[in-house]
Fold this protein.
Amino acid sequence: MSSGFKTTSQRIADRFTFGWITPSLISVVLGSLVVLLCATLAQVSFGAYQLTLAEAWHGIFDPDVIFSLEAWGTFLLGHPLPKWFSRTTLVVWNIRFPRIIVGLLVGSNLAVSGAIFQAVTRNELASPYILGVSQGAGLVIMLIVMFFASLQPILPILAAIGGAIAFLLVYAIAWDNGANPIRLVLAGVIVGTVFGSVQRGLFFFVDDLGTIMAARTWMAGSLLGTDWAQVRIALPFSIISLTLALAVSRQLNVLLLGEETAKTLGMSVEKIRFGVSAIAVLCASAAVAVAGLVGFVGLIVPHMVRTIVGSDYKQLLVGCLFLGPAILVGADVAARLALSPIQLPVGVIMGIFGGPYFLYLMRKKSNLGEI
Amino acid sequence: MAQSIDDHDTDAVNSPETTEDSETDIVVSAEDLSLAYPSSDDIVVACDDLRIPRGQITALIGPNGSGKSTLLKALSNHLQPHSGTVSLEGRTVQEYDRKEFARKLSRLSQENDSPGDITVEDLVLHGRYPYRGFFDGVSEEDEDAVERAIELAGVEHLRESSVQDLSGGQKQLVWTAVVLAQETDVLLLDEPTTFLDLKHQLQVMETIHRLNEQRAITIVVVLHDIEQAAHNADHLFALKDGAIEARGEPADVVTEGFLKDIFEIEADVQSEPSLRIHPQRPAQDE
């Protein structure tokens, strides 16, 4: 009897320690990696300076660059370019590859942010874009880009403040003895529209045409012209916010049980909700700071992952970390190459495909939005 | 089994000796309590004095809307009293840290919600929330507690099932297992049998008795069925319009006059061989 109990308890231990690595999660991760690799190769080889796929492959996996401290000093710390960089290396590593890294960070941040907001609001329709967080962050970024350029290095933090204000506003407007999903979405759309209008209004206070063009591209959500400077802005905040997000996955699971149960289990629901929302706002802001307003990633990716791996947040967030980049980088390839030589903003592609997906969700779910 | 509860809670005073002295040993109490919901100022429940004896099964009964569930919410610190205090083991419930409180008292609410695809085992593990630090993994104690809870609630065979595949009765038992995994000294249950078929009603009541006898857990249960309450509880509180109108042992409380006053029904009460209620008709308004 006691040995029987031992094996049961051992089995539980294994289940709780490794059980979350399920075949479905592995397939999401592997599938995403394949998409990501193909997108990367396409992105790196095509363009004004054409490379063959083999050249692109060797360019990316060039050990002389990958294992060179000097090269990484250039990329991550902004040191001057090493003189030994060949032309191919320059094109691959200094022009095309950073765009992919930025796409990776933006995709994972937006997906994780959406997943967290969905747990906080217990609403499958929640995402940083729909809740107005992106626009709140965007307004601050626009102000900085136009008027306070010296504050650029701490852009994500300031953007997060804007995003947080927008989220609190949305929550306050939607609150009526609890925040129901539909009210939240409506409030988010309203706050987002107002913030968006103010952003567009700002255009008329700027004379410099270059700034206006940059701001316009940015508002559409684009990775055009992103390089290592953007990586340097987004990377530290992404590492912090994504690590925190994974660390709170169990709290998110308990939030899914509802406020009353979470309280009974001893959770300080308001504090935890506030804390995880802050993480989600930071994620979204880091993304918005470098890529502008890319919609629907935070909505679609968590939904796709949830359909495959289920509602457990540990699996869901890990899945989002992989599928988010795959979708965003893939969409960016389409945005850059589909109508070449015209480069569309990736936000346009996400909107064109994301909108119908949102409609499909609306039609399919009988009780709209509830997880 | 009771031993292992004390391992977690060094200051638990839950030994069999103290349960003997039930008249004076009060575990949960409320004084000058008045309760209102945040959205309005209407007082829903008012009671001067409520004492829950340790180690016993106490049932709250009363007609619909009499404030039973509201009272239970206040006892479990889900509802801030409009005035007055609720105390657990001598300290007001607000003084407790949330997790510390959740290690001493748990409440099973009437309706529970969870993602459909979660397995029973994973759901029961959430019952260990108050024992785990922010970043803690699953300890051996947690595993053992989950194991005990699943066994006590009698849901071993459902362990691997998804919650969405369970019947209403099975879900109720599984949620019972969740609060059992909290390993508290006090357990509040809000109408645990109301929506269940007879078999599951009996199963739930059996589990309640097992907990009370084997682990000396104090139980406060809201019951809809007066007869069920009378059969299972050591102690009854009857509420009407937010006030406690009667209290005491079932045999003393449940009388024909009582049923007329509280529930507004004409009924015959038969006390031998066991308490039986034969409802006749709604009482006439005078």
Q: What stands out?
A: The CA atoms of residues 4 and 10 of chain B lie 11 Å apart. Residues 1-23 of chain B have pLDDT under 50 and may be disordered.
